[in-house]
UniProtKB/TrEMBL annotation, chains A, B:
Domain CREG-like beta-barrel per the UniProt entry, residue ranges: 30-157
Lineage, uppermost ranks: Eukaryota, Viridiplantae, Streptophyta, Embryophyta, Tracheophyta
Record-level GO cellular component terms: cytoplasm
Natural source organism: Aquilegia coerulea (Rocky mountain columbine)
Residues in the signal sequence: 1-23
Keyword Chloroplast: no
Name the UniProt record assigns to this protein: CREG-like beta-barrel domain-containing protein
Amino acid sequence: MKFKGVYYICLFFLIGSFETSIGVDDTSKPDPLDGVATARWLVSQNNWGVLSTISIELGGAPFGNVVSFSDGLPDKGCGIPYFYLTTLDPTARNTLKDERASLTLSESPIGSCGKADPENPTCAKLTLTGKLTLVTENTTEAEFAASALFSKHAEMKAS
Amino acid sequence: MKFKGVYYICLFFLIGSFETSIGVDDTSKPDPLDGVATARWLVSQNNWGVLSTISIELGGAPFGNVVSFSDGLPDKGCGIPYFYLTTLDPTARNTLKDERASLTLSESPIGSCGKADPENPTCAKLTLTGKLTLVTENTTEAEFAASALFSKHAEMKAS
């Protein structure tokens, strides 16, 4: 039995209460007291995080999965994280049943926490909560999402 | 109103189907085809991950949180991840209501993925699922957990 990749690999994005600001230059670390700017910076500078969904297989238990994502071209984040998921993986299957999700990021992988422990409040942490939704194919958003993802994750383009 | 720290900062551990092997030397990366050894190595070598719980505040949505953890002295992992959590933080409050949790780790922070994308199958990922339970105070396990945590996260000792 043969399936076309399009049925399995789909673009998803997370809608939350995170305000967007397309085209903002996110290269320099914001003032830690500016929570919104720090959150946008974390999303823009990180290229992976943990996406948590409600597990179908585990009867409603929480299930976190390491995922690569992008919210725009390098250093030009839009604030909406996009993912390239496959329904061969439980995360995508879970979200098609229950779209509630959270994306969790740490400043630690960016390398700007110095010697501070990842749990130290000076090493920023972010949990975005919202709904993980399919991007509609053949739309401007789908083009933007693909471009955002492929520019930061070249390996995805070949998949 | 004043509270003693002991009411707020507690040791938790995750019980899952992850078999333990106390005292194993986990310094070298195992054969990727050996899933169990790779999982133990990831737990032993990582010092932070994302702990996902069912959110009380968000009406049952999944909530991932960056947490520091330890499963033993450096390079001597026991396979059980221990955490030092506070009920000032939603993760601990959530787990006292519903103990189902998952701990998600990536090989990426260890630095052994080279240029591979964190979502590339050659860059290991691990999701441990189980119950997040309080360690009983004044027991051998509590001593072990404190020693495991403080040896890898010196900042915790001062908290």
